[in-house]
Design a protein that fits this description.
- The chain has helices spanning 4-8, 15-26, 28-31, 36-43, 47-56, 62-69, 71-74, 179-198, 205-214, 226-240, 251-263, 279-290, 324-340, 342-359; strands at residues 218-222, 244-247, 268-273, 294-299, 308-311.
- By secondary structure, it is of the alpha/beta class.
- Strands 2-1-3-4-5 form a 5-stranded parallel beta sheet, sandwiched between helices.
- The termini are far apart.
């Protein structure tokens, strides 16, 4: 066991799992003596979520995870030697005197049927080492201590510059976001933007701008969390393009829409696919391939069924992801479209300005 940060490095945790990881990082000295029921109560999650969290990190259950974490606090040698204060995992009571419960063991009656399904992004390398990765490389090992470990990328830890208490007020489900937590999240997003900037020369933005500008109609889709980004792109692209068709609902509605735009002359589709990755988005991309549509995808994950993948790392320092780089990528595509058809862009924007002024859509002096 090298450290808590080694267990978490490269793994994309769900919001519930991030709550557990945050509590462990801030209260590790106490947490190693808690049962799974007690840890769930402290972190503000359910007991099965604790078990799934442990299994997502590669352990058979929570007791095994707790055993692996104890050397970080009580000085246990992984080979068996221990400090005077060490108590074996099978007998160590919690602060309330509770021994491990049946619920701590995924194979017991107390937690029968609990399984683990790590997210699609689990194990992804950091931005500098892999196309489409959103995490950061692991930090150096930290020495065992009773304090909160330095866990890069985890909200509420020293690694993210967050003060104790974090997002949830020390696991109570209440509290305010600390300034240092936001600073860590912003620093992560700045690194993501630097990563994108450093790769600009390798991105075919000019060619993609010409392709998207010439596509009539131009279908764009994004589902669930990606719907907002697709909508933003669709709004701005619609100011300079005559026929942008936006889809933010999945299922047969999206498949019907793709078939209709293909019959109307579409030859390309632009998709936004950010974590957590909707299965319907992947199915739509596969269906678009059958229709003969060229697929351009803005994502943080490589390997999606597309001819062009635009790498846009996602920030994962807060409870939910932040999307500075994907938004910048979307706006870069709009800019490339404008550059590809400058006369049409100018004419459409001037016409829009006149119409907006006549209708009083915006406050005086406001841009569209």
């Amino acid at each position: 066991m090298e450290g808590l940060e080694e267990l978490l490095a490269g793994r994309r945790l769900s919001p519930v799992q991030r709550r557990i990881a945050l509590y462990l990082s801030e209260h590790l000295a106490e947490a190693i003596f808690l049962s799974s029921v007690e840890l769930a109560e402290r972190a503000g999650v359910s007991q099965p979520s604790v078990t799934r969290f442990a299994m997502a990190l590669g352990f058979a259950g929570y007791p095994e995870l707790r055993q692996a974490l104890r050397p970080l606090v009580v000085g246990v040698d992984p080979r068996g030697a221990s400090s005077p204060g060490y108590r074996p995992d099978t007998t160590a009571p919690s602060p309330q005197g509770l021994a491990p419960t049946a619920a701590d063991h995924p194979g017991s009656l107390g937690n029968r049927g609990s399984t683990s399904h790590p997210g699609p992004g689990a194990g992804r390398p950091g931005p500098a080492g892999h196309l489409g990765a959103a995490g950061e490389p692991g930090a150096p090992e930290f020495p065992p201590s009773a304090g909160a470990p330095n866990v890069p990328g985890l909200p509420g830890t020293a690694g993210s510059g967050a003060a104790a208490g974090g997002v949830w007020g020390a696991g109570t489900g209440r509290g305010s976001v600390s300034g240092s937590l936001l600073e860590g999240a912003l620093e992560s997003e700045i690194r993501n933007l630097h990563h994108m900037r450093d790769r600009l020369a390798t991105l075919p933005l000019a060619e993609l701008g010409e392709t998207l500008a010439a596509a009539e109609p131009l279908p764009v889709f994004g589902l669930r969390v990606s719907a907002g980004l697709a909508t933003t792109f669709g709004y701005y692209a619609g100011l300079i393009h005559p026929d942008v068709r936006l889809f933010t609902s999945g299922g047969s509605h999206l498949l019907d829409g793709l078939r209709n735009v293909q019959r109307a002359g579409a030859r390309v589709v632009l998709a936004f696919v950010l974590p957590r990755y909707p299965a319907e988005s992947i199915q739509a991309l596969q269906y678009a391939e059958k229709l003969g549509l060229r697929r351009i995808v803005v994502t943080d994950r490589p390997g999606l069924p597309a001819e062009v993948t635009l790498d846009a790392p996602v920030g994962d320092r807060l409870v939910f992801d932040s999307h500075s780089a994907p938004l910048a990528m979307a706006m870069a595509l709009v800019e490339a479209m404008a550059d590809a058809a400058p006369l049409r862009t100018q004419a459409r924007l001037e016409d829009y300005e006149r119409a907006a002024d006549e209708a009083g859509i915006f406050l005086p002096g406001e841009p569209p």
